[in-house]
From TrEMBL:
Annotated organism of origin: Acidiferrobacter thiooxydans
Domain FAD-binding per the UniProt entry, residue ranges: 2-340
GO molecular function: FAD binding; oxidoreductase activity
SUPFAM superfamilies: FAD/NAD(P)-binding domain
Stated name of the protein: Oxidoreductase
Keywords: Oxidoreductase
Gene3D superfamilies tied to this protein: FAD/NAD(P)-binding domain
């Protein structure tokens, strides 16, 4: 089989990239090792900018018809004392709120749109087993699925296979893995009676914390931190050790957990680490999303950064195909565009990691002081939110202001028709 772009990994980033390339009339093949998406996912919290992307892609109506949960507010508290509240209602954008969307529903919606394009194909149950090379350049992949082996020749291979990326390992590209001081035990419980299912919580007690994220249809996706590599010891102590862990942070919620988490099968371990790579690419191969820049799972940033990678990359690839300039210069340009946003999120997350896991009395005092200051300084909240949650919408508002005035549009550097549309044509169906 031959294709222009072969994407390994059919998660949100891979599927969004495949759809965008298909709309730009690029021949694209998407490999996904899972035969079915009916399994538990964690990356279901979509930032407001990502919700806007779903509208651009034409899948928002399908997602809304299924059902979702919006988060209007986030609260950080210590021993039930409120330290910081962030209210998203006042954001001056069309899409204000974090939205929880079941990932199987999202992936099926994306793949239904991909199927509308004859120049795109999805191979489910097909696991990448190796990289093909010709003259030192990656020229495709080998794969195995349904008891058969095959090869796909492509002009570019995209590794979009997540935090445990096999493509990253096969590429031999250097990277640094930085383990955090904690792991997280994830579980789901119904929202307790009297609690809002539109408010996210971070509940603190000493160096322990409990994260509660509103989840469709009426659940909290909850995470409690444990010491790094301590899960095996926790399990040996029995399920009561887990109950005691949650009780120690918030006894009321702990009682609720006891009623709804029956055994260790209801609990999932997430190893917390980051990965930094000097280069996300080599000739013929580019990594995106968590495969290239693994962030911590704090408030679901990874999936959103990955989708934004795809939206940035698709027109660059399509344009480069038209001009026959695929190569290291293009990949370096893409990394240079995306790196500042990735580094900003990582910087914010690393600071939060230190605050959440503060052990000494002094460090916990600093944490309370930081959160209390941020609670009062709404303009700082806005600056951070505009960079992480609303950057795309903010840029589009600026674009609209510029294009309402042709002279201003020239000053801003915007044109009515994109380079890709001019050179390649765009299939907007």
């Amino acid at each position: 089989m031959k294709t222009d772009i072969c994407i390994v990994g059919g998660g949100p980033a891979g599927a969004v990239l495949a759809l965008q390339l298909a709309r730009l009339d690029v021949d694209v093949t998407l490999l996904e090792s899972a035969q079915s998406y009916e399994r538990s996912f964690r990356g279901e919290s979509m930032q407001p900018d990502t919700v806007g992307i779903f509208h651009e892609l034409g899948i928002a109506e399908t997602l809304l018809a299924h059902g979702c949960v919006e988060t209007y507010r986030m609260e950080i508290s210590e021993r039930r004392r409120l330290l910081l509240a962030i209210d998203y209602s006042d954001a001056p954008y069309r899409h204000k709120f974090v939205m929880d969307i079941p990932q199987p529903v999202l992936l099926e919606a994306l793949q239904a749109r991909i199927a509308d394009h004859a120049n795109a194909r999805v191979l489910r149950g097909a696991a990448c087993t190796g990289l093909l090379e010709r003259d030192g350049r990656v020229s495709g992949v080998s794969y195995r699925g349904h008891g058969k082996s095959g090869e796909i020749e492509s002009r570019v291979v995209i590794g979009a296979d997540g935090r445990y990326s096999r493509v990253r390992e096969m590429s031999k590209l250097p990277y640094t893995k930085l383990p955090m001081n904690r792991d997280v035990l994830w579980f789901k419980v119904p929202v307790p009676e009297g609690w809002s299912n539109h408010t996210a919580h971070i509940m603190l007690k000493g160096a322990r914390h409990l994260i509660l994220l509103p989840t469709y249809p009426d659940l909290f996706r909850a995470g409690v931190n444990i010491a790094k590599n301590s899960f095996a010891g926790q399990k040996r102590q029995g399920i009561d050790a887990f109950y005691t862990l949650v009780d120690g942070i918030d006894p009321e919620f702990g009682s609720h957990v006891r009623r709804h988490v029956a055994n260790w099968r209801d609990i999932h371990l997430l190893d917390i680490f980051t990965i930094n790579m000097p280069s996300w690419s080599r000739d013929g191969l580019l990594l995106i999303g968590d495969a290239a820049h693994t962030v911590t799972p704090l408030l679901g940033q990874g999936v959103n950064l990955a989708i934004q990678d795809s939206m940035e990359l698709a027109p660059m690839l399509a344009n480069a195909l038209c001009q026959d300039r695929l190569g290291s210069v293009l990949f370096a340009e893409f990394q240079a565009k995306r790196q500042p946003d990735i580094e900003f999120v990582m910087k914010v997350q690393m600071r939060q990691e230190r605050l959440l896991c503060a052990e000494s009395s002094w460090a916990q005092f600093v944490r309370r002081t930081n959160y209390a200051a941020l609670h009062r300084l709404r303009f700082v909240q806005k600056r951070i939110s505009d960079r992480i949650a609303y950057k795309r919408q903010r840029a589009m508002l600026h674009f609209d202001e510029c294009t309402n005035n042709s002279g201003m549009a020239l000053e801003c550097g915007f044109t009515q028709t994109s380079t890709v549309e001019k050179q390649c044509g765009v299939n907007r169906s």
